[in-house]
Amino acid sequence: KNQVEQSPQSLIILEGKNCTLQCNYTVSPFSNLRWYKQDTGRGPVSLTIMTFSENTKSNGRYTATLDADTKQSSLHITASQLSDSASYICVVSATNSNSGYALNFGKGTSLLVTP
Amino acid sequence: DAGVIQSPRHEVTEMGQEVTLRCKPISGHDYLFWYRQTMMRGLELLIYFNNNVPIDDSGMPEDRFSAKMPNASFSTLKIQPSEPRDSAVYFCASSGTSGLEQFFGPGTRLTVL
Q1: Distance from CA of A89 to the nearest CA of B (A)
Q2: Which residues contact B68 (CB under 8 A, 6 or more apart)?
Q3: What span, in angstroms and rounded, lies between the C-alpha atoms of A63 and B102?
Q4: What sign results for the dihedral spanned by CA atoms B40, B102, A80, A69?
Q5: Does A59 reach chain B within 8 Å, measured CB to CB?
Q6: Nearest to residue A45, comparing CAs of B60, B89, B22, B3?
Q7: Distance of CA A35 to the CA centre of its chain
Q8: How do residues A58-67 score in pLDDT, each as one tens digit?
Q9: Chain A window 17-46: which residues touch B at a Cβ cutoff of 8 Å?
Q10: Count of Cβ atoms closer than 10 Å to residue A115 Cβ
């Protein structure tokens, strides 16, 4: 069964500190992996998208890594800001012969950055 | 560009009533997705369209749910009859040719009493 597990479920860090969020998946056949940021009361916003051949991708202070062999991804946030407080969702796509691709969602990590 | 537009933003209805959620995708996008988000289940894909054609509706929970895309600039998600367990935030998203990067609308918060 295709699954996406994120950890930790929630995290509190001090402003200015770094943090790393984890995403483990069992999705097959793998197509791509995306990290989304969702602010409270808003729709998710794409941070990074990685395909099988990509190991790392950055978007400002956000850096995502992908290890397709171990089926693990991480999202590293550098020098956190109060505005980073949000839910971070990992989504893994599987190639689906019937419909192009199928999306598998993690439950998200809730991050709170405190002053 | 105004981004993905959804209406209404909030909907409160009584069990058994018909509910229609609306979405206007970003102009020029080929893909349109409908999602549902709850605390218990997280984000779930309900259905997606490519060039106005439904491609995968395997996420639609049951026959009470239906979605249409009559043209490239408009889609609806209908629930008839609605039930309390349908209470959730419903998101619409659109994407360009690759279908990879999706842009989400602000969502419709549905409460069924």
Answers
A1: 9
A2: B75, B76, B78
A3: 19
A4: positive
A5: no
A6: B3
A7: 3
A8: 999 999 999 9
A9: 32, 34, 42-46
A10: 6
Q: Could you tell me the two tokens for A7? A: 């950890």
Task: In whole angstroms, give the CA distance from residue A83 to residue A86.
Answer: 8
| pLDDT at A101 (0 to 100) | 63
Q: Please check whether residue B32 is in contact with residue B69, taking contact to mean a CB–CB distance below 8 angstroms.
A: yes
B42:A46 CB<8 A:
no
Of the candidates A71, A101, A38, the one whose C-alpha atom is nearest the C-alpha of residue B59 is A101
Q: Which amino acid is at B85?
A: R
How does pLDDT run across B49-72, given as a tens digit for each residue?
999 999 889 889 889 999 999 999
Give me the sheet containing A19-25, strands edge to edge: A4-7, A19-25, A72-77, A62-67, A56-59
Least confident of A35-49, A84-98, B21-35: A84-98
Identify whether the C-beta of residue A91 lies closer than 8 Å to the C-beta of residue A53.
no
Structure letter (DSSP) for residue B41:
T
Answer whether A23's CB lies under 8 Å from A104's CB: no
Task: Please answer yes or no on whether A45 and B100 come within 8 Å at the CB atom.
Answer: no
Which of A42, A101, A107 is facing B106, going by the closest CB pair? A42
HEC assignment per residue over A69-111 = CCCEEEEEECCCCHHHCEEEEEEEEEEECCCEEEEEECCCEEE
Q: Which of B42, B100, B107 sits opposite A49 (nearest CB)?
A: B100
State which H helix or E strand residue A6 sits in: strand A4-7
